[in-house]
Design a protein that fits this description.
This protein is 70% helix and 1% strand. It has 26 helices and two strands. Strand 1 and strand 2 form a beta hairpin. The longest helix is centred in the middle third of the chain and has 26 residues. It is globular and about 60 Å long.
Length: 466
């Protein structure tokens, strides 16, 4: 029986139950990887009109592919064989090393992929944002976005202008097409810092936070879709989550105002993650029940958040003429038309989306979710208190978001890419379970299984085609 700092107030859980959940996930990961290597696993739905194709690997021996994947996986877990808190190293130093190691491993992985990052980045089919930035300047895009969007390639038509604005910003650092995709990768990887502070402040446990940041770095969905702009979306979403937790923990109005500004930036970049409001609402309710913030203070500061959002929207409209609300409605209508024109039936995808999403988050992460929720609901205290525990609110909030975003049917297929922002938060229960075991072996197992899935998926499946 075990207890850790991150499970204060939670009844201890038998080690065998925690290990069973992780080992089950690892076995599922290996089985799916075997199916991918044999090209028998369909990622997507043939019946639903969308699936990710396999590449031709006739010139690569299956044994050689397996050896390369295992080598990459071994490199991913090598650093985890040292103590979680080495003497003389602070958590920030460990996190920085992990970000550098993950970036290096991602670089080593690219030769296994069917297409170079540069080819994908400049392709109008894979990443049409770059081409538009070469034809129009930033101010013109904001002033005439709806007109420019109509004549642009598909990805620009179906997105807000925030991704274009980010590319304009990155081009201030470098305009070289071999450098820009790696700037996108680096920016996405820096989201691990936000994941760390978000989980640390929520659970008040640095070990859980470090494990969550590591799993973020090796998230299959993120690594499958480099260097697309969807891999940067989690950075904005996690930033909003961290500001929320800081606001709830400190009760300071400045964090509510900053969150209002961050939400505007999120909508400008990608509005779909607004569905994460269900998770954020669960976190807020849990904080109120735990007495971290009063109802009155929360409502008053929530009003500040709304005013900050509206003020930012009106300022941008007055400065550039860009209307975020009108554009948001147009993009939403485009998504509905896309599903109809491509013949993707709702009834098929309401289930197929769940399988595709599971492939993108990792199978140890799936099996850990149930154990994490169970641990939060066990123990002493009233049901009200148990539901307010951080791990309980996280698990229930994530399930609510997943069910909602699936049932509304806006996305039918391609959810590995479109729901990357949600997949990142699904790493938290796995980090929590590994932290409860208070040993290095569990996180090594999860990272190894996840890294193997990343390597096999990148090598065998054409997730992004130029």
């Amino acid at each position: 029986m075990i207890v850790s700092a991150s499970t204060a107030g939670v009844q201890s859980i038998p080690r065998r139950m925690l290990w069973f959940s992780l080992l089950l996930g690892a076995v599922l990961s290996v089985a799916v990887c075997w199916g991918v290597a044999a090209q028998t696993v369909v990622v997507g739905s043939i019946e639903g009109g969308w699936h990710y194709p396999y590449g031709q690997r006739d010139t690569v021996m299956p044994l050689m592919l397996l050896m390369r994947c295992l080598f990459w996986s071994a490199g991913a877990v090598a650093l985890l064989l040292v103590p979680a808190s080495p003497s003389g190293l602070r958590p920030w130093s460990i996190l920085l090393v992990w970000i550098l190691v993950a970036t290096a491993l991602q670089w080593l992985l690219r030769p296994m992929a069917p297409f170079p990052l540069e080819t994908l980045f400049v392709s109008d089919n894979a990443n049409s944002f770059y081409g538009v930035t070469q034809q129009h300047d930033a101010m013109e895009v904001l002033r005439r976005f709806n007109w420019i969007r109509i004549g642009a390639p598909l990805h620009v038509q179906s997105n807000m202008p925030g991704k274009l604005m980010l590319l304009y910003g990155l081009q201030l650092i470098s305009t070289r097409t071999e450098v820009l995709p790696w700037l996108v990768v680096a920016l996405s990887n820096l989201g691990a810092i936000l994941m760390y502070v978000f989980v640390r402040d929520l659970f008040q446990n640095r070990r859980t936070a470090l494990f969550a940041a590591v799993l973020y770095l090796f998230l299959p969905a993120r690594n499958f879709f480099f260097p697309l702009m969807n891999t940067v979306t989690p950075v904005a979403v996690i930033a909003c989550g961290w500001l929320l937790v800081r606001w709830l923990r400190t009760g300071r109005t400045i964090y509510a105002a900053l969150m209002g500004l961050a939400l505007y930036a999120l909508v400008l970049f990608e509005p779909l993650p607004l569905v994460m409001g269900l998770l954020f609402a669960a976190l807020a309710l849990g904080a109120i029940v735990r007495g971290e913030i009063s109802w009155e203070r929360f409502v008053a500061q929530a009003a500040v958040l709304v005013f900050a959002f509206i003020g930012m929207s009106e300022t941008v409209t007055a400065w550039s003429g860009f209307d975020v609300v009108r554009t948001f409605r147009t993009i939403g209508a485009h998504a509905v038309e896309f599903n109809e024109s491509t013949g993707r039936p709702y009834g098929v995808w309401v289930l197929a989306n769940l399988w595709e999403f599971a492939f993108g988050i990792g199978f140890c992460q799936i099996t850990s979710l149930g154990v994490g929720l169970w641990s939060g609901l066990r123990g002493t205290g009233s049901w009200r208190e148990r539901l307010a525990r951080p791990i309980t609110t996280v698990c229930l909030g994530l399930l609510a978001v997943l069910v909602t975003v699936d049932l509304i049917g806006v996305n039918r297929g391609e959810v590995i890419r479109l729901w990357i922002f949600l997949a990142c938060f699904f790493q938290i229960p796995a980090a929590y379970v590994c932290s409860m075991l208070d040993d290095r072996a569990p996180i090594v197992l999860v990272v190894a299984a996840t890294a193997l899935q990343v390597a096999v998926g990148v090598a065998m499946i054409h997730f992004v085609v130029p």
